[in-house]
Specification:
495 residues, alpha/beta, Transcription Regulator spoIIAA, two-stranded antiparallel sheet, 20 helices
Length: 495
C-alpha cells in the first residue's frame, strides 16, 4: 500500500469520519455492556476489548471504515471457559486466537471464504441471533414482573423512537429512559444493575501478562476455545468486509484483515480485554453515518472510552433490563427473516444446509461446528449435483461390430461408479471407442473407473480405444492409469 493511499484512508473526510465514529461509540456502550452479561465477565473486560480492538484495527486492518470490537459471537463461545477457569484463561485464549488469526493471514486462508456458501452464512447469522435471544431469555427467567415490564418498555422505545428521529441511536435513548425511571422510582434496589456485574474502567488499560501457568495443560484448556474463536471471528469479519465492499463499491484486503484481527486480539489480550471481531451492525451504522476511513474506526474506540470515564457513575446504575432489551433488538435485527420465506422457493438442498447449520450451532452452542457442518453439506450436495450431470450415450456400427460411447460431464469419486456401470460388457463387439472429448477426469477414482472399463472389455476380447482426452486429463491418466501399463490384466483383480 502506497503512503498516499494510506493517508487518504485516514484523512479523506475527517469531519464525517469523526461524527460517524461518535455515533458508533454511543451504540457500542450498551452492546459492550450486554456482551459482558453473555460472557459472564466484568464490564471492563468487554469495554477494554472494544477500545483496544477498535484502535488497533484502525491501523492494521484491511477494510477502512469497518468497526471491530467485542462481539456477541465471541462472547457466546467463551462463557464456559470463564465459568470453569476464570478470566485469566480467557485472556490466554484471546492471545492464542490472535496468533492463529495472524497465521491465517500469513498463509492467505481468507481465500477459503469462497467455499462458504450463502446458505451457510445465512444459517450462521440466524443461529447467532437465536443464541442471542436464548441468553437474554435465560437472563429474565426467575425475575419479577418489574423486569419484564422494563424490558417491554425498552423494546417500545427502541422500535418507536426512530419514528421521531434517527439522530440519536434508539438503544441509547432506551438506556437513558429506563435508567432514569429506575432511579426516580427507586427500582434500582430491586433490579440488577451494571454496577452489580463488576467494576467499570477508571483508567486506561495497562499491559498485563495473563496469570496462568504457561504449560501444555493450559494450552490444551484454551485451544478448544481459541480455534472456534479464530474461525468465528474471521468468518464474521470477512463477511462484514464483503458486505461493506458491496455497500461502498470498493475492494478490501481480506488476508490483511485476517492479520489485523489477529494483532487486535493480541493487543486486547495483553490489556485485559476479551477477544473480538468485526461487527456487522455497527459497521453498517458507521458507513450509513458517513464513515468511510480508518479515522471513523479509531474515533469509535476513543470516544467509547471517554464516555465511560465521564459517565461511569451513571453507567453503574443502568438496569440490566435495559441491556436485555438492547440485546433482544440485536437478536431480532441479526436474524435474516427473509430466509424463512426462502425455504419454500429456494432449492431443497440450500434450505437443508441453512437449517442444519442453525441446528448444529444452537444444539452445540459452537458457531464453528455449525459452519463446518454447513460447509461439508454444501460440498456433498454440490458433488452430488455435478455427478448427476454425467451423460453417456452410445452408437452402434453393426457392420463393423463397433460401438462408440460418448461421455459428457465430470468424472470424479462421486460419478466414477456411474461411469463404470454405463457400459455393456456382454455385447459381442470387436471394437469399442470411448470418446471423452466433452469429459474431464479429476481424480484417482475416475481414472480407476476407466481402468476397470478398459480391462473388462479386453477380457471379453474387445479392442478399446480412448479418444478426446484433454491435456489435464491425459496427464492424469498417463501418470496413474494401469490399463496402458505392462501386466495390467494381471493386476486388474487388485484395482
Amino acid at each position: 500500500m502506497t503512503q498516499n493511499k494510506y493517508f487518504q484512508e485516514w484523512f479523506s473526510n475527517p469531519r464525517r469520519d469523526i461524527i460517524a465514529g461518535t455515533v458508533v461509540a454511543l451504540a457500542l456502550i450498551p452492546e459492550s455492556l450486554a456482551f459482558a452479561i453473555i460472557a459472564g465477565v466484568d464490564p471492563k473486560v468487554t469495554l477494554y476489548a472494544s477500545f483496544c480492538i477498535a484502535i488497533t484495527i484502525a491501523f492494521v486492518g484491511g477494510r477502512p471504515g469497518m468497526i471491530s470490537a467485542a462481539t456477541g459471537a465471541i462472547a457466546l463461545l467463551i462463557g464456559s471457559l470463564v465459568a470453569n477457569h476464570g478470566v485469566q484463561y480467557l485472556l490466554a485464549a484471546t492471545l492464542l486466537t490472535g496468533v492463529l488469526q495472524i497465521l491465517c493471514g500469513v498463509f492467505k486462508l481468507a481465500d477459503l471464504m469462497r467455499f462458504v456458501s450463502k446458505s451457510v452464512v445465512t444459517g450462521f447469522v440466524n443461529a447467532l441471533a437465536i443464541l442471542y435471544f436464548i441468553t437474554q431469555v435465560n437472563e429474565m427467567m426467575g425475575q419479577t414482573w418489574i423486569m419484564y415490564a422494563m424490558v417491554a418498555g425498552g423494546l417500545v422505545i427502541i422500535y418507536g423512537f426512530p419514528r421521531l428521529t434517527t439522530a440519536v441511536p434508539s438503544p441509547l435513548i432506551c438506556i437513558i429512559v429506563l435508567t432514569t425511571v429506575s432511579i426516580t422510582m427507586g427500582l434500582d434496589t430491586s433490579l440488577k444493575t451494571v454496577g452489580d456485574m463488576g467494576d467499570l474502567p477508571s483508567s486506561l488499560p495497562s499491559f498485563l501478562f495473563p496469570d496462568v501457568p504457561w504449560n501444555w495443560e493450559t494450552f490444551m484448556i484454551v485451544l478448544p476455545y481459541a480455534i472456534p474463536m479464530t474461525v468465528v471471528g474471521l468468518l464474521e469479519s470477512l463477511m462484514t468486509a464483503g458486505i461493506l465492499d458491496d455497500f461502498t463499491d470498493t475492494e478490501s484486503d481480506k488476508n490483511r484483515e485476517c492479520k489485523g484481527q489477529g494483532i487486535s486480539n493480541l493487543v486486547a489480550g495483553f490489556f485485559g480485554g476479551m477477544g473480538g471481531c468485526a461487527m456487522i451492525g455497527q459497521s453498517v451504522i458507521n458507513v450509513k453515518s458517513g464513515g468511510r476511513g480508518r479515522l471513523s474506526t479509531a474515533a469509535s474506540g476513543i470516544v467509547l472510552l471517554i464516555l465511560i470515564f465521564l459517565l461511569g457513575d451513571l453507567v453503574n446504575q443502568i438496569p440490566i433490563a435495559a441491556l436485555v432489551a438492547v440485546m433482544l433488538m440485536v437478536s431480532f435485527g441479526t436474524f435474516n427473516w427473509s430466509s424463512i420465506k426462502g425455504l419454500r422457493k429456494n432449492h431443497l438442498t440450500s434450505s437443508i444446509v441453512m437449517i442444519s447449520t442453525v441446528l448444529a450451532v444452537v444444539l452445540t452452542h459452537n458457531l464453528a461446528i455449525g459452519v463446518g457442518i454447513g460447509v461439508v453439506l454444501s460440498a456433498l450436495f454440490f458433488a452430488y449435483k455435478v455427478s448427476r450431470l454425467l451423460e453417456i450415450s452410445s452408437e452402434l456400427e453393426v457392420s463393423k461390430k463397433k460401438r462408440t460411447y460418448s461421455v459428457v460431464g465430470q468424472l470424479f469419486f462421486v460419478s466414477a461408479d456411474t461411469f463404470a456401470n454405463a457400459f455393456n460388457f456382454h455385447e459381442v463387439l470387436e471394437h469399442v471407442t470411448i470418446d471423452v472429448t466433452h469429459a474431464h477426469f479429476w481424480d484417482l477414482s475416475a481414472v480407476g473407473a476407466l481402468d476397470r472399463v478398459v480391462l473388462k472389455f479386453r477380457r471379453e476380447g474387445t479392442e478399446v480405444e480412448i479418444v478426446g482426452l484433454n491435456e489435464a486429463s491425459k496427464t492424469l491418466v498417463l501418470k496413474i492409469a494401469t490399463h496402458d501399463k505392462p501386466g495390467a490384466e494381471d493386476a486388474a483383480g487388485g484395482h
